[in-house]
């Protein structure tokens, strides 16, 4: 545990709760838990941005999605040959 101060490393996530799906949910924790999935506005890991303004900045999302789809197909194919 520590503090958020300039020059320190931090892990922090900020979610957007100002959309229509969260309108009327006054408690932000309740909005995150019971409301629709909230988009990540900012994610810092060791003080470095991973998601900035809702955009993944540490990897190409299309490449990651393609790799996940390929892995899913492989798992499905392997499961089909099991008795």
List keywords for this structure.
83 residues; alpha+beta; Urease, subunit C, domain 1; 4-stranded antiparallel β-sheet; 4 strands; 33% helix
How many individual helices?
Answer: 2
CATH third-tier fold name: Urease, subunit C, domain 1
Low-confidence stretches: none
Report the order of strands and helices: EHEEEH
Quick overview of this protein structure:
This protein has two helices and four strands. It has helices spanning 28-34, 61-80, and strands spanning 12-15, 40-45, 48-52, 55-56.
Characterization of the model:
The chain has 83 residues and is of the alpha+beta class. The chain has a single domain, classed as Urease, subunit C, domain 1, CATH 2.30.40.10. Helices cover 33% and strands 20% of the residues. It contains two helices and four strands, in the order βαβββα. The protein has helices at 28-34, 61-80; strands at 12-15, 40-45, 48-52, 55-56. A four-stranded antiparallel beta sheet has the order 1-2-3-4, with no helix packed on it. Strand 3 (48-52) and strand 4 form a beta hairpin. The longest helix has 20 residues, at 61-80. It is extended and about 55 Å long. The relative contact order is 0.13.
């Amino acid at each position: 545990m520590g503090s958020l101060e300039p020059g320190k490393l931090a892990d922090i996530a900020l979610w957007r709760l100002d959309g229509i799906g969260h309108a009327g949910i006054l408690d932000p924790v309740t909005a995150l838990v019971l409301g629709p999935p909230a988009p990540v506005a900012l994610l810092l890991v060791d003080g470095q941005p991973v998601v900035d303004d809702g955009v993944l900045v540490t990897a190409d999302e299309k490449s990651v999605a393609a790799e996940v789809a390929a892995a899913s197909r492989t798992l499905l194919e392997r499961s089909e040959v099991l008795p």
